[in-house]
Design a protein that fits this description.
Blueprint lengths: L3 E6 L5 E4 L1 H7 L3 H6 L4 H4 L2 H15 L6 E8 L5 E12 L5 E10 L1 H17 L1 E10 L2 E2 L3 H11 L3 H16 L3 E9 L5 E13 L4 E10 L1 H7 L3 H12 L7 H7 L4 H11 L3 H18 L7 H7 L5 H12 L3 H9 L11
Antiparallel strand pairs: 1-2, 1-5, 3-4, 4-5, 6-7, 6-10, 8-9, 9-10
Length: about 350
């Protein structure tokens, strides 16, 4: 793949010239683009049009000399391609603005990898951090200092003092720490994490960075203390993931009160409903990536217990960084080919 180039009329926004690579990216021939008077915003994904329009208006007003934007193109066949676009003005001999030149690099593969990495980190409960904690031997007073304060503010009050002491001890000797503690998320749920950090001195900046990661260990701790009926309920959910079951039915089947089930999952930080949804989402992902010939996004969503395909698509994208249609399209398309997806 090369670099796409297009020339855009500054008054209408319509594309007047495009090379072969640009046409491949957007999924139209140059003849189709010219005949339909297609503008660059018409090719832009609806969710990216407003940010693209704002930058274009700034360029037209002379507030900026050019701009770069990562945006999605909505192709003729309905598929989506990510492009890294650099836009610069072209002026005539008198200095008047006549055209815009847009240079486009296809970064779809990079965006897919980034999405898959983010999804993997989300599923694993993994996050990383890099905070400036000291400058020239003194505690940091910049915004980075408040990042450390913000991090500590999310820690459960009963665990905050111990973690803060461990971090300051690591800073004082430029060492590291490993500690298990509880955090309280945005929804007020309590989760267990294992935090690991190391102090790294940067001579060029004259400051100490606290670099590390946290990983969600709620499930591990829950398994240690899990009552047998709860274990059997989770095994039932995994085995019968395609069947609908209420908490009352499961509790009665495995000899535990519904209240005890609610209480257990409330204390663990993840509701039973969320646990069921995550399990079904994982099975939906497996079916979308390994489909049968007649599978559609809707049929897979319904098979996995998602009765609202639109809601399923939004939740799926949050977890995996792409839509169900994109996952299915990639699975159904042979290498080097593109194919529409049935909804």
């Amino acid at each position: 793949m090369g670099i796409g180039i297009s020339i855009v009329d500054c008054e209408t926004g319509c594309i007047r010239f495009a090379n072969a690579e640009f046409c491949r990216v957007v999924g139209y021939t140059l003849g189709q683009i010219r005949a339909a008077h297609i503008s660059f915003l018409q090719l832009t994904h609806p969710e990216d049009q407003e940010s693209n329009r704002r930058q274009q208006e700034q360029l037209m007003a002379g507030e900026i000399d050019g701009y770069r934007i990562d945006k999605r193109y909505l192709r003729q066949d309905g598929s989506v391609v990510w492009g890294r676009v650099i836009v610069n003005p072209i002026r005539d001999a008198a200095g008047s603005l006549k055209w815009f030149c847009a240079v486009v690099e296809d970064i779809t593969a990079t965006k897919i990898l980034e999405g898959q990495l983010a999804a993997a980190e989300q599923l694993a409960g993994l996050s990383t951090f890099n905070l400036i904690v000291a400058i020239d031997g003194r505690p940091a007073t910049s915004a980075a200092k408040f990042s450390l304060s913000d991090t500590l503010s999310r820690v459960h009050p009963e665990d905050r003092g111990g973690l803060e002491k461990a971090i300051h001890h690591a800073i004082s000797r430029r060492g590291g720490y490993t500690r298990d503690y509880r955090i309280v998320d945005e929804c007020g749920r309590t989760r267990w994490v294992r935090g690991m950090g190391t102090c790294v001195y940067s001579p060029s900046e004259g400051c100490i960075h606290l670099v590390g990661s946290t990983i969600d260990i709620t499930a591990t701790r829950r398994d240690r203390e899990m009552p047998e009926p709860i274990q059997r309920i989770l095994e039932h959910i995994e085995t019968h993931w395609h069947q609908k079951s209420s908490i009352e039915q499961l509790a009665g089947q495995y000899g535990i009160s519904p209240r005890a089930v609610y209480q257990y999952f409330s204390n663990s930080g993840v509701s039973l409903g969320e646990t069921i949804k995550r399990n079904r989402m994982q099975h939906a992902r497996r079916l979308l990536c390994n489909p049968e010939t007649r599978d559609t996004v809707t049929s897979i969503a319904l098979r996995c217990g998602f009765n609202n395909p639109g809601h399923f698509a939004r939740e799926y994208r949050k977890v995996y960084g792409e839509t169900p249609s994109e996952s299915l399209r990639q699975a159904l398309s042979p290498p080097g080919a593109e194919r529409g997806v049935k909804l």
